Amino acid sequence: MNAQQSQANPQVSPARIRVFDTTLRDGEQSPGCSMTPPQKLVMARALADLGVDIIETGFPASSQSDREAMALIAREIREPTLAVLSRCLQSDIDISLRALEAAARPRLHVFLSTSPLHREHKLRMSRQQVLDRVVESITFARGHIDDIEFSTEDGTRTEEDFLHEVVAAAIAAGATTINIPDTVGFTTPEEIRGLFQRLISQVPGAGDVVFSAHCHNDLGLAVANTLAAIEGGARQVECTINGIGERAGNCALEEIVMALKVRNAFFEADTGVDTRRLVPTSQLLQRLIGMPVQRNKAVVGSNAFAHESGIHQHGMLRHRGTYEIMRPQDVGWPDTQMVLGRHSGRAAVEQRLRALGYYLEEAELELVFAQFKALCEQQRVVTDTDLQALMQDTRDGEGYRLASMTVSDAGQRASATVELSDPEGQRVRETAEGDGPVDALFAALAAATGVQLSLESYQVHSVGLGTDARGEANLSVRHGDTEYDGTGTSRDIIEASALAWLDVANRLLRQRRGAASEQFATA
Fold first, then answer.
1. pLDDT above 90 for 410
2. Is residue 337 classed as helix, strand or coil in its secondary structure?
3. Is residue 442 part of a domain?
4. What is the domain extent for residue 50?
5. Nearest to 89 by CA among 111, 70, 107, 57
6. Dihedral of CA 169/170/174/179: which sign?
7. Read out DSSP for 374-390?
8. Rounded to whole angstroms, what are the CA distances from 103 to 40, 68, 99, 107?
């Protein structure tokens, strides 16, 4: 960060970046992510606890729901600034100002497109008309509210001379924050860094306002572009939890915050966010909108601190810093996960067995590790329960095996008959009906094994190509308060589904037998 950047905005410390969260507005515009006013209030509470500086609650002129949400939030959330979005239209501004009346720290966020593409095809306005509308709108709003943010929609695709002119006019009219959105995720880090540097150094009055970056993720560059904008002098970042938003989404709050925290010495900047609340806030949003994040999502994905590779696990056991640049506890995860699977090595298996209370001689460890590798060919992940079963009795790992099955969907209800080989080698045969072939199959398996599972999700897909292709079934089921994942593979997808169900059932049965054996030994 150079001296020019440090002196660009005397109102805000160069080391302090304001976090403008737009999960409830831009994020909610993502298809399938809409929230009710009570849900928005729940999320707003979490954002306030997280420590964001500004919460954009919605677009009041667009819907009654957004107005109701703002009213609920304003009555309760008093510490962060509450913002609402408005077009540069007096009618919109009037509605937005009424929505902000109950807010303790209100901000009006007005926007107008500035790029030639938008001026010609969306607004049908000339440069001068855009300038006049900006000045009229901000001047009118400034007569009613002090905190005004102005956004140049599609700013990164606007002619730079005109962008300078619009920003200067907005500042002169009374805007206190200037936001330059990369509305369609088009720019690059080098371009946006230079753009902010030139705006801040050349536009009259730039030193009296806060410059903000709002980057979309169409090319996967939202976080990188936002970091570059900070290097260029931006002192506010606009982002969403989990990166939700229009099309490919927005800059992800958890990623930009942790990038600044982990690389603080490089960026010489940080936020006021309580990073320990990032994972709980992410998980709350996932529950509210029903959109899970991918497992390998940075910071908040379930694999973000999980290690399966034997080489990585060995390094982690020696020193955490070999493969982790931040502590999982610092973002809200309980700890690192050493995932045991087909890529795991002996060191990780031995370490996990020791954690479970098993200290093995070399020969015994070799035997158990060989059994572990064999089990990995049947299931993707080996749990603590699986390891305990291997330690107790090799036969316990066998469980129920599918001998045969028939499924019929000819009548009003489907029926399925399964024949299983139980852990003692006896045959068990059961028939059940269901709303479809898979439902009937799972009901028959439950009757045969005595294990009741509640299906949460179920997917099938092809593995391999051509005549070698197989069907793989993946399901998530709930047993009591715990959720389990099962996987099965076969050339027949119905058989693959049965194997996935048995994958979970056998683990539960081994767990029961292990608990019974331990209780007997204690007695």
1. no
2. strand
3. yes
4. 16-289
5. 111
6. negative
7. HHHTT-S-B-HHHHHHH
8. 15, 13, 8, 9
Whether residues 370 and 418 share a domain: the answer is no
Say how far apart CA 492 and CA 77 lie, in whole Å: 55
The whole-angstrom distance between residue 294's C-alpha and the CA centroid of its chain comes to 7
Of 471, 469, 470, 473, nearest in space to 497 by CA: 473
Of 121, 201, 203, 200, the residue nearest 213 (C-alpha)? 200
**CB 266: neighbour CB atoms within 10 A?**
12
Place of tokens 């305990």: 388
Amino acid (1-letter code) at residue 3: A
Read off the amino acid at residue 224: A
Residues in contact with 339: Cβ distance below 8 Å, sequence separation at least 6, in sequence order: 306, 307, 308, 381
Nearest to 114 by CA among 94, 84, 134: 134
- Please tell me the distance from the alpha carbon of residue 47 to that of residue 51, in angstroms, as a whole number: 6
Radius of gyration of the chain (CA): 29
- Domain boundary pick from 392, 412, 437: 392
Q: Are residues 430 and 384 in the same domain?
A: no
Are 142 and 283 contained in the same domain?
A: yes
d(CA 37, CA 288): 12
Given a contact cutoff of 8 angstroms between Cβ atoms, the answer to whether 257 and 236 are in contact is no
Confidence of residue 5 (pLDDT cuts 50, 70, 90): very low
Reduced to 3 DSSP states, what percent helix, strand and coil does the chain have, rounded to the nearest 5?
45, 20, 30
Q: What is the pLDDT of residues 185-213, one digit of tens each?
A: 999 999 999 999 999 999 999 999 999 99
The model's pTM: 0.70
